Each structure stands twice: as C-alpha cells, then as structure tokens.
What we know:
single chain; 5-stranded mixed β-sheet; alpha/beta
Amino acid sequence: xxxxxxxxxxxxxxxxxxxxxxxxxxxxxxxxxxxxxxxxxxxxxxxxxxxxxxxxxxxxxxxxxxxxxxxxxxxxxxxxxxxxxxxxxxxxxxxxxxxxxxxxxxxxxxxxxxxxxxxxxxxxxxxxxxxxxxxxxxxxxxxxxxxxxxxxxxxxxxxxxxxxxxxxxxxxxxxxxxxxxxxxxxxxxxxxxxxxxxxxxxxxxxxxxxxxxxxxxxxxxxxxxxxxxxxxxxxxxxxxxxxxxxxxxxxxxxxxxxxxxxxxxxxxxxxxxxxxxxxxxxxxxxxxxxxxxxxxxxxxxxxxx
Length: 305
C-alpha cells in the first residue's frame, strides 16, 4: 500500500474533487485517478460514489470505514520514519491569514512536514495586525500576511498572484476578458483582500455605493453568490480552487488589478536573541518548495537565509 495513494484518498475527502486534490498535491488529475484505482483494487472495495454529472465525490460505506484508518496509517507511517531521525528540531509557531491557510500555504506546509518530520509545527489563523503583534511579542516565530511594513519585522515577498473576476457558470458576462466598466458595484460580493485591491476597487466603483454584500471569509463568497449577475474579485489560488469545486467562471481583466503579494514575516535578528534551528530549517525548506510553486514571487526563491 503506497503512501501517495492514501494521501490522494485523504486529500480528495478533504477537498471533495479530484481536480482540487490534484492542485494541492501538484500532480495531474489522471495521476490522482490512477492512484485511487490502484488503491481500490488493492483493498477490493470501491471508496467513492461516482455519479455522472456530479463533480463532488462522496464516500461509499466502505470509504467511510477506510477514512479513519487512512489517517491512522499516515500517522503511523510518519512515526516509523522518525525512529532513526535526527534529534528534534524543536517547535515553530506559524501564524497566517485564513485565505492564505486554506488556498496557498496548506500544500507547502504539508510538504515541509514530510521533509522535516522531526520539526514540530503549531499553525494558527490570525488577521494581519494580530500576526505582527504576536511576532513582536514572541508568541509567533513565522508569519504570512499581506502588509509588509513594520519596524521590527523582516517581510520578504514570497507569493505573487494575479487577481481575477469570478462568477457563477452561465453568468450574464461574456466569455473571455472583461473590463471593469462592464461590472456593477451592486452585484459585487466584496472581499477586502488587501489595501491595494481595495483602492483599485474604489477607483472603478463609487466607494459610497454599497456592494451586493461584504464578506470577510472565503467560505462566505459562495454562500452569497446566488444569481448570474453576482461577481467577486479573487486571487488566483482562491479562484482556481473554487472553480474546481463549483465550476465557476474565471475572467481576466482588460485593466488588471494589482497582484496580491503575500509576505513571509520574521522578527529581525538581535544580538541578545539566540538563533532558532527549527525556524531556520523551516525557512530553508519553505524556499526550496517555493521554487516549484506556480505563484512564487520572482526572486524570492534565492532568499533562503
């Protein structure tokens, strides 16, 4: 029984579609499908209900029984490989924003866990201001956020995502590129991704005019996208994941918004603060993985100090 097959099974359960699991694992959909077929053959059962016309996969009764066993298998397998591992690298406390956690950081963090099994990681979600406060108060070691300016924090750009317009399948909007003038503020599901995108929004639509609805979490984007006129600005990582789950339309802009830039945050080194082996190992491994990421910030892969 191969680890790749069980990981693929677990990721499909978490993300509900083969395409979403493939995006997270950075492999093709055909690779994921083949792994599941081989796993089902080895187990002698069907793990997923495959109904035509439905992109989301549901577990069979056998799949529901196998899921907790798969999680135990992965945990046990990781523990076995740690028997002869190096001494513990200690703990790294990582804070990030919800949209980064869910759509951009999860895959690299999973790969770091595989490459550094002797590094204990604590991963929590905060707003940007909280991340800076907890870094300066030494409650966090690493942060990921959108706002780079702080006197005692080193902020290195690591992700650079284009921003698109998303809408429901069969929307009122023509296929292909769209101009902001074709969109109405009253139909927008407004999400304040970062200050630059908020400013760009205000340049095209009256700041005083209310949108269809304002939201502060990615999960609410789809909750309120109800009619063919609704639209929203979405960074590439979020847009592609939502398209895989909901078959959404993705439109590029004729006048593109600024990219969403995400930063890796660390406290500035001081003479009275000893270096952390675990933090250094995490950062070095992160940059190695970042080099293969489709939305890496140009030049960031060389800054693995």
